[in-house]
Amino acid sequence: MSVAPTASSPSRIPIRPSAVADDPRTEPGAVEAEWLEADGRGGYACLTTSWTPRRRYHGLLVAVPDGTVKRHLFLAGLLDRVITPVGETTLTRLRREGDPPVPDASWLGDVDDVPWHRARLDVEGARLVREVLMPAGRRAVLVRYRVASEAPVELVLEPLLACREADALTRENLELDPRVERRTDGIACRPYTSLPALCFRLGGGTWSFEADPLWYRGIEYQEELLRGYDGHEDQFTPGWFALRVPRGGSIVVGVDIGHDAYDPVAAWDEATTARRKSARRAMGSPQLRRHLEVAADAYLATTPGGRTGVVAGYPWFQEWGRDTCIS
Asked: What is the pTM of this model?
């Protein structure tokens, strides 16, 4: 099997309701929106509001590695579970063939998309805010969990790795290297030598990592099946993080492609400050115009040569003059 399967200033924007609402297998009236973060280099993070992936293009870190112009899906998602003194709640769920069409997301509260993705999570015994932001000009994503209630919480995060071209699919294989390099601020892994290492860094709380390599088989992408494409693949996890977040506190998980060491909390503060400044420029505009002005920045991307280009659309297109001008 091929190691890297071959397929036949940034902003947060909502894309559109998922077409899952048109599926006759779906519960009546069920619509789940998709959201987007862009990194200003042609990469993005994009998932549904519940984080259940429905497209092969969905993921938390899709980036363009050096030496290629093709987007690659590195971090497909984080399977997250919240543990409080009174109960346990599984947040992100994967859809498998034969599963109910709409996963339980009763814990999902208000969702805001500007100036970055934020969602309130009302779990048994606690309230959290889960936020996602991509720093400008870096192939990285920052995920913050903030406790908005009095009780401390424990989190279990299980990263799902695809490490493939964004429009491809992958299967369990023996060429993947399951080893993990432990570091003082996180871990690093390089599943395939043809792609750069993926680094996880954590800051703001106490954490530990337990190596437990395994494959999740038969993940189903409902949107792909509706479009008539293959909609099943396998994804790998190197293990899981156990995190403890104090009451009123937060923890930031930074994931990047082979970047130098950095403090994820400081990176979060820097990125959010820059994003707020960008959003304030549109504060005096009507709400629709404000969203459009903030969203337009997501389509500007700097090429490796330093030129500014316009992305024709997400998640499929990159620079494409005809479609850019039409839009």
From this structure: 0.84
